[in-house]
């Protein structure tokens, strides 16, 4: 299995107005969780662990008898900086099905990978998203996300 490390953000209020305000919130120390996302080219859906959604205090909706999270902001490290890959809440391919025990905290399936023109490079052992290369990380127990910033920016509780 192939994993990439990413950060999951929950922007609120003024931080969620546009991409520029999201970048400013990142620089200001907005709280995030570092996780290992599973790249699953056999999946027709994207998945997120319910406990991670609860930690982020994000709301999800029921759609076709499944709990769905319609918007998720992720970033990847590229050349030492966080590269924000925001989602457009209007596109169903950005949805994540909220389940108790997926294979990892986050499972990036074909819809998510296709939207981002992702290319898997087995020779270099990584994934390219929008032209930026992210190496695969070692497979480990991905059962718990790791909070890595204790800032109260944007109203997230500790």
From TrEMBL:
Highest taxon of source: Eukaryota
Gene3D superfamilies: Acid Proteases (2.40.70.10)
Descriptive protein name: Uncharacterized protein
Organism: Rhizophagus irregularis
């Amino acid at each position: 299995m192939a994993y990439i490390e990413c950060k999951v953000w929950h922007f609120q209020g003024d931080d969620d107005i546009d991409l520029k305000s999201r970048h400013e919130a990142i620089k200001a120390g907005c709280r995030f969780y570092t996780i290992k996302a599973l790249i699953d080219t056999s999946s027709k859906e994207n998945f997120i662990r319910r406990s991670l959604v609860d930690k982020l205090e994000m709301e999800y909706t029921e759609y076709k008898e499944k709990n769905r999270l319609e918007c998720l902001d992720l970033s990847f490290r590229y050349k030492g900086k966080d590269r924000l890959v925001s989602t457009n809440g209007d596109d169903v391919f950005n949805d994540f099905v909220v389940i108790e025990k997926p294979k990892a905290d986050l499972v990036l399936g074909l819809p998510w990978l296709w939207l981002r023109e992702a290319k898997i490079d087995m020779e270099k052992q990584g994934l390219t998203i929008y032209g930026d290369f992210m190496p695969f990380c070692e497979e480990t127990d991905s059962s718990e996300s790791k909070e890595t910033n204790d800032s109260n920016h944007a109203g997230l509780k500790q």
